[in-house]
Design brief:
alpha+beta; TIM Barrel; Jelly Rolls; 3 domains; six-stranded antiparallel β-sheet; 10 helices; 32 strands; 17% helix
């Protein structure tokens, strides 16, 4: 029998009333060395539970190849929470949204052009089953029914915002039960009729997600679940940022007031987020509210919540703790010492390795009659290069990419001609072809697969074809560039920066401390520290610095590699002791 039950409109744990006061910390957005620190701060604030998603694409990067080490060691994260006396809510839905690449779904699902996502489609369910056969045995010993801290598990995430396949939802429920998941199961959806009708399952607890007006949200939940407890599974006390937007913030007093409303109704709550962390590597997702609007998410997942990206309590932390203290026994405030933060200063990035000069070190060429997307070539993320020849002579024509996902740099005989972006129909590239013909190269960047809404099926690269004027171009050489192994790069080049270049420098540190990397004068690209992919940077903002946790550094020399797509004015990077997530005002239009 599950230890957490529902009766007469409330949660009971071991027969005693329990008001769940939870905060979200995603293990995959915080380096493992800092998990205990963040969890201690959660408990000190007055919370009794931590909630986390489980990112399928992190754990199964290739079909049948599983990873549960390092930042993917979910068992260690859950055990650490239990050691601190926290309950754990786990949300291992195949899909998690979370502003995470493809909503947590593995990119390799899209290698099958006929794949149908998040429905009762046997090829999809077969892959879910294979994943659950590995994941659920890891969670089972950590269930509260087996002496562990996990009190509840989610079967799908905001499904009513996507579909209404109740057969699919029930299949997921049964998939968990047959694998020994015998704790409380739940769903979470927006507080509307359509969402609750599409996303709930008979016999499974329904919860709702919102950022304000809790009275209205809980009333709608009671329409569908009159005898159950009310819980906000995602209380949006902050928000995330897209590239090119302003940095979102929310007043702490407003957050505290909404929380008080929930607690007065004896509602349970999960703060989304308590600590946001960082979208390291290529794991940031994107939104696509309509076919012609694509909004990639920045590297920082600070979220303007109770703990900053670097794990420091904010004013919101203390405002929330003050409210919680009126409704529960809050422990004495004993916080760990703040992490040391150092300004290491400037680092000269003198060594260069041109992308085109190092293609053989990074990939193997693949011949194809037509361009194919990344997934068909077994690639999850990064960049992909398409190359062909156009015969001449020809007058100037426009180059059409049909369709590009997401951002393409165009080179003709090695000369940069411009950029084509899926979200910017005004960006056009045209050129003439001389009698001897030209070599056309198209470098496409995956800026993050869509993580929410109707357009999840988001293959990357060039998905259909390339036309020069009216004529489709055939006979391509393709190179996948996931950039997951840079050790063979030759940094003795002297490229002028018109083509993409890797730059390398050394940060010398007497001690390892948290720091923030600034790339003033750089344009757009990716940064690695000691081989660890920090994520993307882009001068269009709002984010102006990248968080570098101390565990990524070591005393002595630290290798810094920057892959710059468009060129740099400085050739230096700088490490400061404070972050800059950008202005809270919308950027001025150029």
């Amino acid at each position: 029998m599950a230890l957490l039950e529902t009766l007469n409109g409330q949660f009971l744990y071991e027969g005693k009333p329990l008001q769940i006061l939870a905060g979200a910390i995603h293990y995959f957005r915080t380096v493992p060395e800092y998990w205990r620190d963040r969890l201690i701060k959660l408990k000190a604030c007055g919370f009794n539970t931590v909630e986390t998603y489980v990112a399928w694409n992190l754990h199964e990067p290739k079909p049948g190849v599983f990873n549960f080490q390092g930042i993917a060691d979910i068992e260690r994260f859950i055990r650490t929470a239990g050691e601190l006396g926290l309950y754990v809510i786990v949300r291992p839905s195949p899909y998690i949204c979370a502003e995470w690449e493809f909503g947590g779904l593995p990119a390799w699902l899209l290698a099958d052009s006929d794949m149908r996502l998040r429905c009762f489609h046997k090829p999809f369910l077969d892959r879910v089953d294979a994943y659950y056969d590995v994941l659920m045995p890891k969670l089972k010993p950590l269930l509260s029914t087996n002496g562990g801290p996990i009190i509840a598990v989610q079967i799908e995430n905001e499904y009513g915002s996507y579909g209404n396949d109740t057969k699919y939802l029930d299949y997921l429920r049964q998939s968990m039960i047959t694998r020994g998941i015998d704790v409380l199961l739940f769903t979470s959806d927006g507080p509307t009729d359509a969402m609750l009708q599409g996303g709930t399952v008979p016999g499974v607890l329904a919860t709702v997600n919102f950022g304000s007006r809790p009275g209205e949200a809980f009333a709608k939940l009671r329409d569908y679940q009159p005898d159950g407890p009310v819980m906000c599974m995602e209380f949006w006390n902050g928000w995330f940022d897209h590239w090119g937007e302003h940095h979102h913030t929310r007043n702490g007093g407003d957050v505290a007031a909404v929380l008080e409303e929930m607690l007065k109704e004896n509602g349970s709550v999960n703060f989304y987020m308590f600590h946001g962390g960082t979208n390291f590597g290529f794991f940031s997702g994107a939104n696509c509210p309509s076919p012609d609007v694509y909004q990639p998410t920045i590297t920082s997942y600070d979220y303007d919540v109770l703990l900053s990206e670097a794990g420091d309590p904010t004013d919101k932390y203390y405002a929330v703790r003050e409210v919680l203290a009126r409704y529960t026994d809050v422990p004495e405030l004993k916080l760990p010492e703040p992490s040391a933060k150092l300004a290491y200063g400037r680092v000269q990035m003198a060594a260069k390795a041109g992308l085109f000069a190092n293609l053989n070190a990074l990939s193997e060429p693949v011949d194809s009659v037509y361009p194919v997307p990344m997934e068909k070539l077994g690639q999850n993320d990064g960049f992909i290069l398409y190359e062909t020849r156009i015969s001449g002579p020809r007058p100037a024509h426009e180059l059409h990419l049909q369709d590009v996902r997401d951002r393409a740099l165009i080179f003709v005989d090695g000369r940069y001609m411009g950029v084509i972006e899926r979200w910017n129909p005004q960006a056009k590239v045209s050129f003439e072809v001389p009698k001897e013909g030209v070599k056309l190269q198209i470098l496409v960047e995956n800026m993050g697969r869509i993580n929410y809404g109707a357009y999840l099926k988001d293959a990357k690269g060039i998905t259909e074809g390339v036309r020069f004027g009216y004529q489709f171009l055939f006979d391509w050489t393709i190179r996948t560039l996931p950039l997951d192994e840079l050790g063979r790069l030759d940094f003795t080049g002297s490229e002028d920066g018109e083509t993409p270049v890797f730059y390398k420098g050394a940060l010398h540190a007497e001690q390892a401390a948290d720091t923030f990397l600034y790339l003033e004068g750089w344009t757009k690209g990716v940064v690695w520290v000691n081989g660890f992919n920090l994520g993307r940077y882009w001068n269009r903002g709002p984010q102006k610095s990248l968080y570098v946790p101390a565990p990524l550094l070591r005393p002595g020399a630290n290798e810094i590699v920057v892959f710059e797509l468009h060129g740099t004015e400085s050739g230096e990077v700088e490490f400061k002791a404070e972050p800059d997530l950008g202005s809270t005002e919308p950027p001025q239009k150029n």
